[in-house]
Amino acid sequence: MVRAMFTRIAGRYDLMNSLMTAGRHHAWRAVAARETVAAPPGPILDLATGTADLALSVRALDPGRMVVGADFAEAMLHAAAKKPAVRAARIPLLAADALSLPFGDEVFAAVTSAFLLRNLEDLARGLAEMRRVTRKGGRVVTLEITRPATPVWSQIFGVYFHRVVPKVGAVVAGDRAAYTYLPTSVDGFVSPNELSSLFRKLGYRDARFRRLGLGTIAIHTATV
Fold first, then answer.
1. In the predicted model, what is the mean pLDDT of residues 116-131?
2. SS3 215
3. What are the tens digits of pLDDT across the range 82-107?
4. In the CATH scheme, what is the code of domain 2-149+190-223?
5. If you average pLDDT over residues 46-74, what whole number do you get?
6. What is the rounded distance in angstroms from the CA atom of residue 110 to the CA atom of residue 47?
7. Predicted confidence band at 68 (pLDDT cuts at 50, 70, 90)?
8. Would you give the distance in Å from CA 113 to the centre of its chain?
């Protein structure tokens, strides 16, 4: 279902991200990229790369670093491949399932992702796979939408997310269902504290997070 949804909206994915966040998603990815390039030397995997915006942010900060983009929705990869910046950066793009990555153990110095985790059928398995393909001392960095912690702001955000975003999605992307799923998936996802606890339970070290976007975004960083 998730693959089919992202296949449908691939052509308008970047535009919808910009409209929903007033363009702030680029700044959030830049923060995640800075956390990612702090990893030891070695290749980086941008998992659920989508249209490769996070991969491009990483390469902009560390042009000499190999960055591989992977996604299980091939339509998103096709959209990424059309970007001149992706072609210029020569970022390899490949189809891959986050729950069963086609890489050996300890291949990457870091694994990063944006807006992936709440779409995983099995969150613990996905995090375990990221840990498996990351070298000892490497990093896993995730960027995810989260519910604001402040009650009043949380209610305002909820109204925007549940009522406005689906309407914009229907008009701009022609897919109300996809942008109805979006806020529902956030409501059902674990809190940042719970996610940090899961990182630690799975054997990660130094798990921490910071909130951005008035508390609507959480960037998690953990060491393998």
1. 97
2. helix
3. 999 999 999 999 999 999 999 999 99
4. 3.40.50.150
5. 97
6. 10
7. very high
8. 4
Q: What angle do CA 160, 161, 162 make, to 5 degrees?
A: 100
List the one residue out of 222, 206, 58, 61 whose CA is nearest residue 139.
Answer: 222
What is the DSSP pairing of strand 217-223 with strand 134-145?
antiparallel
Residue 14's Cβ-side half-sphere holds a number of Cα atoms within 13 Å equal to 14
Closest CA to 173 of 29, 12, 7: 12
The helix (H) or strand (E) run that includes residue 29 is: helix 25-37
Which residues make beta-bridge pairs with 223?
A: 139, 205
Give the Cα-Cα-Cα angle 106, 32, 188 (nearest 5 degrees): 90
Cα radius of gyration (the chain): 16
Q: Can you name the residues that pair with 217 across neighbouring β-strands?
A: 145, 212
Four-residue CA torsion sign, 21, 24, 29, 31: negative
Mean pLDDT of 23-45: 97
| % the chain with pLDDT above 90 | 99
Task: Find where tokens 């719970």 sit.
Answer: 194
Percentage of the chain modeled with pLDDT above 70 = 100
Number of Cβ atoms within 10 Å of the Cβ of 33: 27
**Beta sheet of 108-114, edge-to-edge order:** 93-95, 67-71, 44-47, 108-114, 134-145, 217-223, 205-212
Look-up of token digits 């959209």: 79
Q: Is 196 left (phi over 0), alpha (psi -120 to 50) or beta?
A: alpha
pTM: 0.94
Structure-block tokens of residue 184:
């529902």
Please name the amino acid found at residue 192: P
